[in-house]
């Protein structure tokens, strides 16, 4: 069993063994017919937000660094957004792009990045202790990635990606060995791998390179959705996930969940499980070309529009999303 199969098996266990969230199987066929099939398209990379280097090495460096720090949703209400941008992720992506346009960051430089560098790169307020905490976590993630690439792949980001032999499962497995990518929850004594950022790294490389060259992954369809706090939020309001009254009240009143709390794990696991059921229904309806990667991108964009954007979604301060 590879890591992607294990994610699916273990999140299915949580989905079927929790008292907080129920997947509405009965609503999935109509949801697939009316919402997914008409709206989900092959994802195109947003080069307005992201950096495209003069060579694949610089582009991969940017992508791997971005996904090493692709977390902080629990801090984003306090993050100083770039003018004209209302997304925390987009703010981070654009500011990192601007840094790369001045000078691409190599693996050796990454090992020396500190929180003050991150405050400068991402133009944040050093007087805000929560944001300083986030910038420190960014720095640690960048240092860890730089040391990993330098030590194991002679500083070559493309060497690292190609070492997976065009397998999404293998690249996810390799990334999961980094402490700040090791998104594995403990639920009722069982380890539940979710590995959101490791999976999204593969998805981003695939999308940015149009599935060609270093972006070719022969098993790209085996990725799950990238479980964070947006996907379950959309699936809740689209009627696919039913929350308990207790969970609804917590989320709607803005009460933060602790990372690793059973409810927080269930939110992420159930969203993965629900989309796997959606994929199964898509195949039943003859749509083999719609994969989890495209569904995730659709749901994430949907979650940043009305009515979803004005409704509260769950909050958790975590390095995993």
How does this model look, in words?
Helix content is 51%, strand content 4%. The protein is mainly alpha-helical and 321 residues long. The two termini are 25 Å apart. The model has no long low-confidence stretch (mean pLDDT 97).
Question: What features would you highlight for this structure?
Answer:
two-stranded antiparallel ribbon; 321 residues; 4 strands; globular; mainly alpha
SS-based structural class? mainly alpha
Q: What's the count of strands?
A: 4
Strand order of the largest sheet: 1-4
Kindly provide the radius of gyration, computed on alpha-carbon positions and rounded to a whole number of angstroms: 19 Å
Major pleated sheet: 2 strands, antiparallel
Helix content: 40-55%
Please report which band the strand proportion falls in: under 5%, 5-15%, 15-25%, 25-35%, 35-45% or over 45%.
Answer: under 5%
What's the order of the H and E elements?
HEHHHHHHHHEEHHEHHH
What's the mean pLDDT score? 97
Inertia-based shape: globular
Distance between the termini: 25 Å
Low-confidence stretches: none
What's the quick description here?
This protein has about 325 residues and is mostly helical.
Q: What topology emerges from the helices and strands here?
A:
Elements (H helix, E strand, L loop, with lengths): L2 H13 L5 E3 L4 H12 L16 H13 L19 H15 L4 H4 L4 H7 L7 H25 L3 H6 L5 H8 L8 E4 L2 E4 L2 H13 L22 H7 L3 E3 L1 H8 L9 H23 L7 H11 L19
Antiparallel strand pairs: 1-4, 2-3
Helix pairs in contact: 1-13, 2-13, 3-10, 6-7, 9-10
